[in-house]
Design a protein that fits this description.
Layout: E1 2-7, H1 11-22, E2 27-31, E3 44-45, H2 47-56, H3 59-64, E4 67-68, E5 72-75, E6 81-84, E7 103-104, H4 107-120, E8 125-127, E9 129-136, E10 141-147, E11 150-161, H5 168-173, E12 177-192, E13 194-195, E14 202-205, E15 212-216, E16 223-229, H6 240-251, E17 257-258, E18 263-274, E19 278-279, E20 282-284, E21 290-291, H7 299-318, H8 327-354, E22 379-380, E23 400-402, E24 405-407, H9 409-413, E25 419-422, E26 437-441, E27 450-453, H10 457-462, E28 469-472, E29 478-482, H11 487-499
Parallel strand pairs: 1-2, 1-11, 2-8, 5-14, 11-20, 22-29, 25-26, 26-27
Antiparallel strand pairs: 3-7, 4-7, 5-6, 9-10, 10-11, 12-16, 12-18, 13-17, 14-15, 15-16, 18-21, 19-20, 23-24, 23-27, 25-28, 28-29
Length: 503
């Protein structure tokens, strides 16, 4: 029997499929489109998402097709140029943060990498397969799938809608999608080849009529073209002629020649969030649950991290954990989406004020500070003023010596299991769940699971006592910290995952 039916094979659905595939959970991934989607669409991958991709085994592929910290060349109406580049100063040289700037790469490259990884794990995308109806009971979901005009009925335990802003799953579930469509905020977006422009930077011109940008897309020969369309502005055609004329008017440059667009769309500002991420056995993720302004580059990244949060929980329940674990998905992810909407809305307002399409770069958009403090899955005995608390992203640490050589902490935790780090004596757990990884900090490693914090980077990141226990969740967040070395609490936490006792 198929355990999970995933509807939608964009970055969110693919991330969930890869996560389930590597955990051995039977699933099907269907996509109404006949093949992979064209167009660059989202192009900014944030550092936290790259950490997720490391765990899924696609980070190297995605990075090889992208560019970190692409310079932004801002050209004012008088021709004055300002170049923005580099990483946030507060993150520079930090051993707890392996990636400090966003990566520019077209969204289709991310999907390509995830599809190939899925194929390596034995999974497949079923293109040309559309969900047309479903019914659910207390024990499962019965879905109808249309393939080339032929209906198929499939029974599953869980259904996940990752099928975008026009989600069939959301509409059929009658979950409200609250927010607004701002018709006065529109943008021409196209993928075009350009003659006469270097690929050394992301070019942005401002003018009285509105901004226009050309961003070179790494691993391709094309640029992503964006031009803001103001209220009442009539030049909204997606033709080459209109794109060229708009570029010339706003830049004053007649030496730049665009080629016929490979893909183009008229984007409108849709800003919405569902009232609920779940209806019993049906879940929503990605754009099906939240739609953001592209300001700040948050939308795609938030969807990928929805899937990463949900994936390990579905797998745990499929393996026997209490279904109540799934209640934590909405409790953790909906507040994140609400916060991202607030951030992207503020960035959009600033972009409109500045007559620009891209705002400033800083640490607020990197998603490294996204966390789940206050979640039912976050427990510690630290005070409110402590820098690192349960629910936070687990920091990385470099220069850890093991019997197998020098490693990063993320090298040791990327397999996606619970990891218990002991900074003191080895804890005596009431039970050791299958798959739990045990790490112990020692002066000199002599066996598996032992590591020496040779540069003090682990201690700097976690601020431990000589008895501290840290339990890292499968998705790289801290589930528990006990500076008192309370092994009973760690045992109770792990037992609670199975028993559904999260209070």
């Amino acid at each position: 029997m198929t355990t999970v039916l995933i509807v939608g094979a964009g970055p969110t659905g693919l991330t969930l499929a890869v996560e389930l595939a590597r955990r051995g959970v039977p699933f099907r991934l269907i996509e109404a489109a006949e093949g992979p989607q064209r167009g660059s669409r989202g192009k900014g991958v944030q550092p936290r998402t790259i950490e997720v991709f490391e765990s899924l085994g696609v980070a190297d592929r995605v990075i090889s097709n992208g560019r970190f910290a692409m310079p932004m060349r801002m050209v004012a109406p008088d021709g004055t140029e300002t170049v923005r580049s580099g990483e946030p100063p507060e993150l520079r040289g930090r051993p707890d943060v392996p990636y400090t700037t966003s990566l520019i790469t077209p969204e289709w490259r991310i999907e390509e990498a995830l599809r190939d990884r899925l194929a390596q794990l034995g999974g497949v995308v079923e293109f040309g397969a559309a969900l047309t109806a479903f019914e659910q009971t207390d024990s499962g979901v019965t879905a109808t799938i249309d393939k080339a005009g032929v209906d198929e009925t499939v029974a599953v335990d869980w259904l996940v809608g990752a099928d975008g802003g026009h989600s069939v799953v959301r509409k059929h579930s009658r979950i409200a999608f609250e927010g607004e469509t701002r018709e006065e905020v529109r943008m021409l977006v196209a993928d075009v080849a350009v003659d006469g422009l270097d690929r050394d930077a992301w070019y942005m011109w401002s003018s009285a009529e509105g901004p226009v940008t050309l961003c070179p897309l790494p691993s391709t020969t094309i640029f992503q073209y964006q031009a803001g369309v103001g209220p009442g502005q009539k030049s909204v055609e997606l033709s080459l002629a209109n794109l060229q004329e708009t570029l010339e008017r706003r830049t004053g440059r007649t030496d730049l020649r665009l080629h016929e667009p490979e893909w183009a769309t008229l984007w409108r500002a849709n800003i919405r969030l569902v009232t609920s991420y779940r209806d019993r056995r049906v879940f929503l993720a990605g754009d099906a649950a939240h739609i953001h302004s592209p300001a700040g580059g948050q939308g795609m990244n938030t969807g990928i991290q929805d899937a990463y949060n949900l994936g390990w929980k579905l797998a745990a329940v499929a393996a026997g954990a209490a279904p109540a674990l799934l209640d934590s998905y909405e409790a953790e992810r909906r507040p994140v989406a609400a916060g991202v909407l607030t951030l992207s809305n503020a960035r959009l307002a600033q972009a409109i004020t500045d007559n620009a399409l891209v705002g400033k770069r800083d640490a607020s958009t990197l998603q490294l500070d996204v966390g789940y403090r206050g979640s039912a899955l976050a427990r510690d005995d630290r005070g409110d003023d402590d820098t690192l608390r349960a629910g936070d992203r687990a920091p990385d640490a470099t220069e850890l010596r093991t019997v197998d050589g020098t490693r990063r902490l993320f090298d040791l935790t990327r397999e996606g299991a619970f990891t218990l780090i002991a900074f003191g004596a080895a804890p005596e757990l009431a039970a050791t769940p299958a798959g739990l990884r045990m790490l112990r900090v020692v002066a000199e490693p002599n066996g598996p699971g032992e590591l020496a914090d040779t540069a003090g980077n682990l201690a700097a990141a976690y601020g431990p006592t000589d008895r501290t226990l840290v339990l890292i969740r499968p998705d790289g967040y801290i589930g528990l910290i006990s500076d008192a070395g309370d092994a009973a609490s760690a045992s109770a936490y792990l037992t609670g995952i199975g028993a559904g006792s999260f209070a």
